[in-house]
Amino acid sequence: MPTASSQSVDPSYDIREALSRVVGDRALLAELVDIVRAESPQLFAEIRRCVEVNDGRGLEQAAHRLRGSVAVFGARGVAQAALALELMGRDRRLTDAHARLAELDRELRRLDRDLEVLPGPPRS
Amino acid sequence: MTILIADDEPVSRRLLEATLTRLGYKVVCVNDGVDAVAAILRPDGPRFAILDWDMPGLKGPAACREIRMRSAAYVYIMLLTARDREEDLVYGLEAEADDFLTKPFNVVELGARLRSGERVLQLQQNLLRAQEALRHQATHDHLTSLFNRAMILEHLDIELRRIRRTGGRVAIAIADVDHFKKVNDTHGHHVGDLVLRQSADLMRSVLREGECLGRYGGEEFLLVLPGCDEAGARLAAERARTSISRRPVRAKALELPLTASFGVACTDAAGHDLEGLVMAADEALYRAKADGRDRVVGWASDIINESGLAGRYTTQTWPAPR
Q1: What is the pTM of this model?
Q2: Which domains does chain B have, with CATH numbers?
Q3: Which residues of A touch B12 (CB under 8 A)?
Q4: ipTM greater than 0.90, yes or no?
């Protein structure tokens, strides 16, 4: 697992925050990483579908759920892009949604790459 | 304590589950509001629930309202949400949630909020226990733990109203401990109390399904016997009488023979009201005392006697020879 100092200059998530959420339980953190990496592509697909069919309510729900899912990791880039889409959905104004969708896609890919290299707990 | 987690978002649900388990709670997890309500409403369902706001089916506030409407027991409900707008907070409180937890939650804060919720539930338990103790105090006799006079008469009144609606009969037996005043005067109130407690326990031990016993006053007890005719009631009273007379009261070196006299009366829908029925049983009890005590005397309500009560004494049950 990377330490705070080994993260890049612009980290996609906050390892300190993530570890504090699980009270230092690296096995649990690894389990949560597996869940979020499995769930995120489905949620992103749902968000994209809602943008394409102009479904504001569906967009609000899916983006809200993605935001909640990554919040544990302090993944601010994903959270901000998801919040912007959630608010667009809530206001039923999806005019700028495609730009935000591209931003969310980039942030999610970055987060996925970073989480992929996050090692599990030490083996005994 | 068991806590219900209702959250469809798997990361949040797993983190919450692991955190609560680490804090020493048992955890039940469901994915939506409908399952949350069903889990709470099960007998012995959790009394503490953490409900996510945004769930499929029934959202957190709606599930909260449903639980408030349908659960007899108080459930402490914490709404879990990433919403932080003032109107959301007000909406949640109006749905009768007890507390809010904002996602992502802080573990220390969560622990403190859980303890606060537990205190509320504990206070509510204490209140219910106190309420139950007061109810018991108001309806039961302190010495014998039987129904008190008001309660046994209320029970009799309910039975009389029932037979007026649906037909059938109800009988009563008034029991009076023989020579009680003498026992009290000779051996003191401590032995007197022992006599009353033992009489109550022995009579209670021979009660059958649906029969009911209360302390009517002083050394008198009232047995309510639903569905009994006069002969059946005399048999029930006889069971009570022999249960008492078979066992003397023992207090240290003292051994006192214990007996009681019984007056029995019965009515149907067209017969006595409560006052008349009690008066008839009293009349029979008076005869049981006058005829030598330790016996059961019944009162049958079919002829008029000299005292004006409509009825006559029926077969008396004599005590077994000692």
Answers
A1: 0.68
A2: 2-138 (3.40.50.2300), 149-313 (3.30.70.270)
A3: 68-69, 71-72
A4: no
